Amino acid sequence: MKASAILVVAPNFKRRLSGVTSTIVQLVPEQAKRLPIAALGPGLPAHLPKLRSRDLLRFWRRPDAKPFRIWHARRNVEMLPGLLLRDVLRMPLRLVFTSASQRRHTGYTRWLIGRMDAVIATSARSGAYLTVPHTVIHHGIDLARFRPHAESAAAARAELGLDPASRTAGCFGRVRHQKGTDLFVDAMIALLPRHPGWQAVVAGRATAEHVAFAADLKVRVAAAGLANRILFVGEHRDIERWYRALDLFVAPQRWEGFGLTPLEAMSCGVPVVAADVGVFSDVVTTGCGTVVPPNDLPQLTGAIEPFLADEPRRVAAAAAALAKANAEFPLAREADEIIAVYERLWAKG
Question: Cα(199)–Cα(216) distance, rounded to whole angstroms?
Fold first, then answer.
């Protein structure tokens, strides 16, 4: 597709894999089924429709189909270039920002948000921290990508080189204090000796400032004699294959803006134990898993153990989680609701 035909730009100016990047990678192809959209930025997968920086020079000319193009930012570092393009270079653009944060924004961020043409919040909790009119749109999941293994979780484990006979609990995401990785590890250290048929997997990357934190977790695991049952497998872009290998997912975050991991797990037919942060309590409803207070190791451990000990309960929760994900969180629904925000801007001219 020619750059001049693009109507929406989804900038992604953070090279490292993150929840925002994951959102863009999933949403842009879905939105591209409905309108001309392209991502812009480094480190994006080859299958995405993409723009090059020099293609922005074509944006001084209005698109044929609409009165202006839309720049959809999700971080400060993406809002600011949008302002420069619209207000300094006078390109025919309108700016949309999606906010997932559940904390008071800095003065600088509030200043940027106040200059957007439309604002989206990923949850009512996120919207409560905004001081501008906004639309709440919950994230969706690519149900074609995140789905149960065609055969079984045991078969998925065998494909990954894991012990197929061991039920598996997982915790995925950045390895750091905010994500509660230590809470998951400590819970597994307490529980696995009582449940010999289970193992645990930590998938995710420790960035430079969190390397010592990750190293300490591995020391604690080794000291407990569980190095062969609590596995640190690093970061994977094909993370859906690892979800399919799970029998239980744990989301122990101390803080989260939205949090896609419980949705991704549920879409793969995996029940969830989650801390009450982000939108986890809206997603992990009765029957699909258990929600516990954040930063509470005894409560987290107590909520996990019934799923390790009671297989019929776990199986029922897995079925309920999959049904809820399929019914309420398809990616197509999120794409449609976002495009409706764009259409309202275009209708205003």
Answer: 19
Convert the pLDDT of each residue in 291-312 to its tens digit. Answer: 999 999 999 999 999 999 999 9
**Check: CATH 3.40.630.10 for 153-328?**
no
Residue type, 340: A
- What is the per-residue burial (b if ≥16 Cβ within 10 Å, else e) of 280-305? beebbeeebbbbbebbbbebbbebbb
Q: Where are the domains of the chain?
A: 3-140+330-348, 153-328
Give the confidence band of 257 by pLDDT, cuts at 50, 70, 90.
confident
Cα–Cα distance measured from residue 203 to residue 209, given in angstroms and rounded to the nearest whole number: 18
DSSP of 123-173, one letter per residue?
SHHHHTT-SS--EE----B-TTTS---SS-HHHHHHHHTS-TTSEEEEEES
In CATH, 3-140+330-348 is 3.40.50.170? no
The confidence score (pLDDT) of residue 39 equals 95
